[in-house]
Amino acid sequence: MSTAVSIENFGLFIKGQWREKRTTTDVLNKYTQKVIAKTAVSEEQDVQDAVKAAKEALTKPFHPYERYAVLKKAAEGLRERQEELATILAEEVGKPIADSRGEVERAALTLEISAEEAKRIHGEGIPVEAAPGSENRQAYTKRVPVGVVAAITPFNVPLNLVCHKVGPALAAGNSVVLKPAEVTPVSAIVLTEVFEKSGLPVGRLNVVTGAGSKIGEWLLQNNDVDMFTFTGSPKVGQLIREKAGLRKVVLELGNNSATIVHKDADIEQSATLVAQKSFNNAGQVCISVQRVYVHEDIYESFLNKMKDVTNALVVGDPKDPATNIGPMIAEKEAMRVEKWVNEAIQEGASVETGGKRDGVFYEPTILTHINDNMRVCREEVFGPVVAVTTYNDVDDVISRVNDSEYGLQAGLFTNDLAFAMKAADQIEVGGLIINDTSGYRVDHMPYGGVKKSGSGKEGPKYVIEEMTEERIVVFNL
Fold this sequence. Notes:
- By secondary structure, the protein is an alpha/beta fold.
- Helix content is 38%, strand content 22%.
- Helix 9 links the parallel strand 13 (258-261) and strand 14 (291-295).
């Protein structure tokens, strides 16, 4: 397979074998709306077989250096197929080709980091001999794999976010049953081919495709699944947590990300970054800027610059190198965004630029004259829409940022150290980014939120802690 055009049918990957199914799902090119692939629809038995294969694989040794070698080779395999995978992402997600190439490189780096972490998993010595009556004892801890990990991944970053789950899980010595997003599964399937060619032991990675509601339920009902890692909506995340019982769960559930621009900020830098990070991937990123609070002293200058940057963005064919913003994942999502914006306008908001839908496209849109109770400020838009308003008091703006059910990341542009330190203490998020937007992330940092944004951390080193159990070993000498 050399290009996405040649993709036709993909089966399930269970116990090292590709399994064809009679029933399939169409995968669309999000720009042309034409079918580019067909993927198998899993039945319940397929899911049970995948879990069984994953559990059986745990009985065979897979030592840390072997994990390192496989993950390192898989990272190299992604880089070798970068252009092919970038084309797939541009087609199945609608992500501009430059961003798609960037995602492939980041995915390779995520696997590379995971490979390195496979050799660093360790415990510590515990001074039990310090307790009266235990003078002749010695102890240490070790980290052991949690077992079978069910990884359920979203449509918006369908390669790198798969790598953020699969890479650390394998590095920690687990087996994985992967359920990629139904509308963007092809990049994950190609990744599976890469792992297959990288020497991954049979059963360590199994892939089931089809409807998330059915597959998720079958996985939750199977007690041989030891852990769930999910990126998606709060509603589904809460359902998984409720049904998982005492099993481990890591959830990344989105945000309505805020960025503060203080009066001492560099206006050109901040306005440019805010515009870029409000609309990348058509705003379909968990940490896309959605709410912007600009100090009233610089509001007009900031807004004018942000509009200039936004108006210069090119909306169009994702495979055209000139394109900055592609289509949304589906027309129904573009229609939902249109509805939310029109609702905000009816409630008094003004459209500074954008505000129009064309099929599956929605223009990059800046809203002003908003209030914090509008849906575009309270819920996650997950589209190319940003609301900009003013503030004049530091304590007030921190309070407004915190007035949210979410808390993934936030941004703050300022050179005022006292403000930055206060914000670091008081803004209720998993990550605060100073002199950049909420949209900053590198793949080895801890990443995860509070409140309805989820629980647990991603980033290979940090999620390996989640994907292992700590065991203490005590010797009576």
